[in-house]
Design a protein that fits this description.
Length: 702
């Protein structure tokens, strides 16, 4: 599935277009836009632009879509992009009142995974009413008069920004809930076909977990919105997109640095976590009550509980809780935005399964240098074939020779495996695998379009990525193209599968006999198949009420187009069949690798819970998430268990996770590389309501 480019959906919703600054004069003014159209400023508040604008969507250097905006009596927006065989299509019509607030707003189209968008907002007789994917609601207008659209195009934030800039404190309470805030960052000059422009960059916060970064020109018009890998930029200025992406990375890093200064606790002397039990992956049980001594970044001793605190040590009161080694998120697409949240969730190591190589290298450098907080990152080298449906990232290849050369580029010691993706020509795979073997690299990946899991197993894969990639080979017709959304929508066919079918058993048996592991990514399949408009996604039930409003709305939104009761039932039964299949794989001895493809953190906790449905005990799941993955990545000598001599990567919870795995959702303390973090401190910086207080920390006389 490779969601790293699609995590942009939330970020793209937070791009911004602005057309004016506050106007305190009572009389009306007329301004002329660059294209000769006129911009008419409305008395007292905001202005309305007349004319048209165009913007280019660029992902990892490749143009993938466009946004066109026409202003007349109403504002009409057409937005679409395509990458990895999918993307959103959005049309909207916005009508404004004299103060610049939307009094009607229609949004139609389809989301990245095909869910139908049919959103409406309207103000009538002092009342606001709206319908989005979560349902319908209304309330009398008060201080909150600005509606935040759920499924809008990026241009929607033009509406928000012009109103925010008219406020002295640049803050507004909004409908359906929450508050938006705007921060100015810096001013700089850019160049393009239309000449030089002065732009100002901003950060907008309040809907999501992280700010959105964008730029306005000196007339107040939108210029660009940018993330680490994506830019939506004014047509004619495409050459500036990389520079602006790099700026967004730096802004994000500065924000994480400022949070780190508040939440990271480093101690000069030894630190003892007293009165805890330790999860032992060798016995699948908890130890007797103990104390764990940490000096610098190592566990130096595990001793009996101390009756009195030592004056020469910092003492952390474990209060009878449990220590678990830091967990491994094995299907990540790492980003600065997710890094600290993974630490707070006890995920101290991740495997990156595909990324913009330059962006990822810079992130690893920052983490290793201590500039920002994040997990240890093991890299897989992403290789994708060029096609109309290709993903953008890693290395794109157009021939077998280029594919083999890509393997050589990944053979510098920085990568654990290569990862083969959907648009790779399956005829090139044997040569790619041979080169990987010659250079000591493992091989993981999707099943390339028009091939099967059986063929990839025979070619020499070490690991199959995503359970749907395997199961599609049992239900697709010859010639069907999995580079499109078909690789998701065809899961409707899974309920008819029989585990005793020879085709099913032959594939599973071949995986077992050839020691081919599976990275099922159960949680992303649960979200795809079981999320429904208006109902809470089952994977988010334990934490969603703690999240900002944008995350809460998303958790009540279907991913796919559930167009009929028959499709609804087919998707529900398809997830049952996925669980049955992974259970059969486990029964036949296939090695299972836990990862989310959803950024880890809270999703990773749910991923682990789901493995109990295939018959694993809570203790077996914990062992898999810690020790087994450390060994798989050849890091077992340093990580994966809480033992004297190993690196100090672990977390503290009040309960017993071997009795109830949900205990891992209430983490009070995380230690990564000898630095201490209290998750409740971290969550406050992201607009998340904490789940549990941190432990008592007792200073010694050092």
């Amino acid at each position: 599935m490779c969601k790293y480019q699609n995590s942009l959906v939330l970020i793209l919703i937070s791009t911004l277009l602005f057309s004016c600054t506050p106007n305190d004069e009572a009389e009306q003014q007329t301004l002329t836009a660059e294209d000769g159209s006129q911009e008419t400023s409305m008395p007292g508040r905001v202005s309305r632009m007349l004319g048209s604008e165009s913007f280019i969507a660029i992902l990892s250097g490749a143009a993938v879509g466009q946004m066109d905006v026409v202003h007349d009596d109403v504002t009409n927006v057409e937005y679409e992009y395509r990458s990895n065989g999918r993307g959103p299509t959005v049309t909207e019509i916005i009508e404004f009142n004299d103060e610049g607030y939307p009094e009607s707003w229609e949004v139609n189209g389809a989301t990245v995974f095909g869910n139908v968008i049919n959103e409406e907002f309207q103000i009538t007789d002092g009342n606001a009413s709206w319908t989005d994917t979560t349902g319908s609601n209304s309330e009398e207008l008060g201080d909150s008069r600005l509606y935040v659209a759920q499924e809008s195009s990026p241009y929607a934030l033009w509406v928000y920004a012009r109103l925010l800039l008219a406020e002295d404190d640049r803050r507004l309470t909004v409908l359906p809930a929450g508050e938006l805030s705007l921060e100015e960052i810096e001013t700089l000059e850019v160049n393009g076909n239309a000449g030089a422009l002065t732009i100002t960059t901003y950060a907008l916060s309040g809907i999501d977990l992280n700010p959105s970064y964008f730029a306005l020109d000196d007339s107040g018009a939108f210029f660009a919105a940018m993330t680490a890998t994506y830019a939506l930029i004014k047509q004619g200025y495409e050459a500036e997109e990389q520079r602006l992406r790099e700026l967004s990375v730096e802004y994000s890093a500065q924000r994480i640095e400022s949070i780190q200064e508040k939440v990271a606790q480093e101690f000069d002397g030894p630190v003892r976590i007293n009165n805890v039990r330790i999860f032992d992956p060798a016995t699948l049980a908890l130890s007797d009550y103990s104390s764990v001594l940490v000096e610098n970044n190592r566990i130096t001793a595990i001793e009996e509980v101390l009756a009195e605190n030592s004056e020469s040590e910092i003492t952390i009161n474990g209060a009878g809780g449990t220590l678990v080694a830091g967990m491994y998120e094995m299907h990540d697409h790492a980003s600065q935005e997710n890094a600290l949240l993974n630490i707070a969730a006890g995920v101290t190591s991740v495997r990156d399964m595909g990324n913009n190589n330059e962006v990822l290298a810079e992130l690893i450098e920052k983490i290793d240098a201590g500039r920002i907080v994040g997990p240890r990152i093991t890299r897989n080298g992403f290789i994708e074939g060029v096609s109309p449906f290709n993903a953008n990232g890693g290395i794109l290849v157009s021939s077998e020779e280029e594919a083999v050369e890509a393997v050589r580029q990944y053979s510098n010691g920085d990568f654990f495996q290569i990862k083969i993706y959907n648009s790779m020509n399956p005829d090139w795979v044997p040569a790619v695998i041979a080169e990987a073997r010659a250079n000591g690299l493992g091989v993981s990946g999707h099943v390339p379009a028009f091939s099967t899991a059986d063929a990839m197993i025979a070619a020499g894969y070490d690991e199959m990525t995503h359970i749907n990639q395997i199961m599609l080979g049992w239900v697709l017709e010859q010639g069907e193209d999995t580079r499109t959304l078909l690789r998701l929508t065809a899961l409707q066919r899974l309920p008819a599968l029989n585990m005793d079918d020879p085709a099913v058993q032959n594939t599973i048996r071949a995986m077992a006999e050839n020691n081919v592991a599976v990275d099922p990514t159960l949680e992303i399949h649960e979200s795809l198949l079981l999320s429904r408009n208006g109902s809470i996604n089952p994977g988010t039930l334990d934490y969603i009420d703690h999240m900002p409003i944008g995350i809460q709305r998303g958790a009540r939104t279907a991913w796919a187009d559930i167009s009929s009761p028959e499709v609804d039932e087919a998707y529900r039964l398809a997830f049952d069949k996925i669980i049955e299949t992974v259970a059969e794989m486990r029964e036949q001895g296939i090695f299972i690798i836990p990862g989310t493809d959803l950024g880890g953190s809270f999703s990773y906790h749910r991923e682990l819970e789901l493995y109990q449905e295939i018959g694993m005990s809570a203790a077996e799941v914990l062992k898999m998430a810690t020790y087994d993955m450390a060994v798989y990545l050849e890091q077992g000598d340093e990580l994966g268990s809480v033992e004297a001599g190993k690196l100090a990567d672990f977390f503290l919870i009040p309960g017993d996770p071997t009795a109830d795995l949900k205990a891992i959702k209430t983490i009070s303390l995380v230690v990564k590389d000898g630095t201490f973090y209290v998750p409740s401190d971290i969550y406050a910086e992201f607009g998340i309501q904490p789940f549990i207080d941190g432990p008592e920390i007792i200073p010694g006389n050092q």
